[in-house]
């Protein structure tokens, strides 16, 4: 296990679009990591939740509505 895998905090937000879950944000000790459904690895770690939400939205197909984020 890498250091980043062990630094996950127990908070996550799932991003939902019209067809269901499209990704997730995991809070870590060093920021918020973004992963889309189907990704093997995280796309990056961002300093704030708002920046991570914007990054996840930007990773979706162009023209996609901003997903709804629900904490789990």
From TrEMBL:
Q: Which GO terms describe its molecular function?
A: methyltransferase activity
GO BP terms:
methylation
Keyword list, A-Z: Methyltransferase, Transferase
Highest taxon of the lineage: Bacteria
What protein name is recorded for this chain?
Answer: Methyltransferase
